[in-house]
TrEMBL record:
Protein name listed in UniProt: ABC transporter ATP-binding protein
Organism: Apilactobacillus xinyiensis
SUPFAM superfamilies in UniProt: P-loop containing nucleoside triphosphate hydrolases
Xref: PROSITE patterns: ABC_TRANSPORTER_2 (PS50893)
Alphabetical UniProt keywords: ATP-binding, Nucleotide-binding
Domain named ABC transporter: residues: 4-229
Gene Ontology MF annotations: ATP binding
InterPro entries associated with the record: AAA+_ATPase (IPR003593), ABC_transporter-like_ATP-bd (IPR003439), P-loop_NTPase (IPR027417)
Domain of life where this protein originates: Bacteria
Membrane-spanning ranges: none
Length: 284
């Protein structure tokens, strides 16, 4: 199968199991949201895929070929994360030139355009940047390198609302101009919900969900009404959470509804990705 295949991956840090025998595929030319609470293993997973960390067991292949220690395959993967891998002493313009020497098809035109839109001073030294502009430089590089699989670990860290808009618009435009796979890990889920085509949720060191955003949202419901009637209607359903205000209750459902008649006092609506994620990852 084309794409990245993660198979039976296990990662342990001393006695802690961070990734527990996980298997799934990352397909070409899709935009994924990689979601999970703090410590769920998202960053570790990305670093293993990019061959910056090693697993205790399992394999990662790209188009059926092992990634580990394979420069040709690794050149098709790019990871940007909170960890700085660029020299602090470099001016930004020199940093871009250095990366362009490494990636021969680096999109310099887009790089200059984004630098202008972000109001980035290219004479600044990388080590002197604020958290927001540190993220901006790494985001620009990620959008301009000619890799087929771009992994973005908290790419909007420190960005204000305006610059987050610039980033999202640039990502959508560059994806439209040259479709490739983006995997975005972020805690601001509501901002990427309309961008991502697929969702991967990691919980308790395992993959809880790996499906299209459309399928997930079609199976996510809020059932609201008098508490007794809501509980009666949802008693056989997959309840992932609930909220109450006085005598009114909402049960959150993930999965199929039943064929029971819906009471006149009960309403059913779909819930958004943020609320689904919170309830799924809160549930024991």
């Amino acid at each position: 199968m084309e794409g990245i295949e993660i198979k039976n991956l296990v990662k342990k840090f001393r006695k802690d199991i961070v990734l527990d025998d996980i298997s799934f595929n990352i397909e070409p030319e899709k935009i994924y949201g990689l979601l999970g609470r703090n410590g769920a293993g998202k960053s570790t997973l990305m670093n293993i895929i990019a061959d910056r960390k090693f697993s205790n067991h399992g394999s990662v292949t790209l188009d059926g070929i092992t990634i580990h220690d394979n420069d040709e395959q690794l050149s098709r993967i790019y990871l940007t994360s909170e960890v700085d891998v660029y020299p602090d002493r470099f001016k930004i313009k020199d940093l871009f030139s250095w990366i362009a020497d490494i990636y021969k098809e680096f999109d310099y035109d887009l790089c200059k355009k984004l630098s202008s839109e972000f109001k980035l001073n290219e004479d600044s030294k990388f080590g002197n940047l604020s958290t927001g502009y540190n993220s901006i430089v790494k985001a620009i590089v990620a959008l301009c390198v000619p890799a087929d699989y771009i992994f973005l670990d908290e790419p909007i860290l420190g960005l204000d609302a305006k610059n987050r808009d610039v980033f999202y618009n640039a990502l959508i435009q560059t994806y439209s101009d040259r479709p490739r796979t983006f995997v975005i890990s972020t805690h601001i889920i509501e901002e990427i919900a309309n961008i991502i085509s697929d969702v991967i949720v990691i919980k308790d060191s395992k993959v809880l969900i790996n499906d299209s955003t459309e399928n997930i949202l079609k199976s996510s419901y809020e059932v609201t009404g008098p508490a007794a009637e809501v509980d009666r209607y949802t008693e056989d359903l997959n309840i992932i959470g609930s909220e109450s205000l006085g005598k009114i209750k909402s049960n959150y459902i993930f999965g199929d509804l039943n064929d029971k008649p819906i009471p006149d006092t009960v309403t059913i609506s779909n819930i958004d990705l943020q609320k689904l994620f919170v309830n799924l990852t809160d549930r024991e």
